[in-house]
Amino acid sequence: MGPAIFLSCLALLAFIVLMVLLSAIKIVPEYERGVIFRLGRLIGARGPGLFLVIPVFERMVRVDTRTITMDVPVQEVITLDNVTIKVNAVLYFQVINPNWAVTKVMDYIRATMQISQTTLRSVVGQVELDELLAQREKINQKLQQIIDEQTEPWGIKVTIVEVKDVELPQNMQRAMAKQAEAEREKRAKLIHAEGELQASRALADAADIIAKEPVTLQLRYLQTLTEIAVEKNSTIIFPLPIDTIRPFVDAISRGEKVEPAQSQPTRRLD
């Protein structure tokens, strides 16, 4: 074997050794963990940082430990009061145990998605439509609790579950719009009736004051004359003199009944 061939073999061997060493060096960032298997047996999670993996004998699986955002597709659900709706949600979760996420389930992301879909249909199907629309926060907490309990054996922590959109049938939307309009009309009528009641009470109080203090009627009479004089009205009003209605005021203050004056019969002159 010549020197040239020997040097070539030596260079090739050095290159192979260098490639093996380079493949053994692993760098894992802060947001990942490397789950190590040696001859098929779980060794554990390593990282972050730099470490060596024995080629051929050891294998590393990278697991992202950051929070993952997942959109749950639209699900068609029948509520407890037999209303067919379409609902979707958003899910936030992260891996807290990389060893379990790799060894306990084949694909933890897909498995979490499937669990989220079935749980969403189950929970929404157990409530009425009004409860779903009015108590959204309560439904979200229930979804988060159930999904978190089901994914905990996989090393998954579900932090937030939010129901995004609830799509109603067209006939149900029209019915709810009519109901809202009727509710607004009801409130308006109640407010108007309350105002009328307060006004009638104020008039009754004023009548009691006038009955107890007849002089207040005279003051009101003079105030009305002053207002007529100040305003430039095109209509001229001639109020009755106060002396004309004074007997009625005095009778009211004494609690007597005032009889209307009878006209004198006219005498015919022949």
TrEMBL record:
Recorded hits in InterPro entries, A to Z, give:
Band-7_stomatin-like, Band_7, Band_7/SPFH_dom_sf, Stomatin_HflK_fam
CDD domains xref list: SPFH_eoslipins_u1
Q: Which GO terms describe its cellular component?
A: plasma membrane; side of membrane
Domain Band, residue spans = 23-180
Query: Which domain of life does the protein's organism represent?
Result: Bacteria
Family of the protein in this entry: Belongs to the band 7/mec-2 family.
Name under which the protein is recorded: Band 7 protein
Q: What is the lineage of its organism?
A: Bacteria, Bacillati, Chloroflexota, Chloroflexia, Chloroflexales
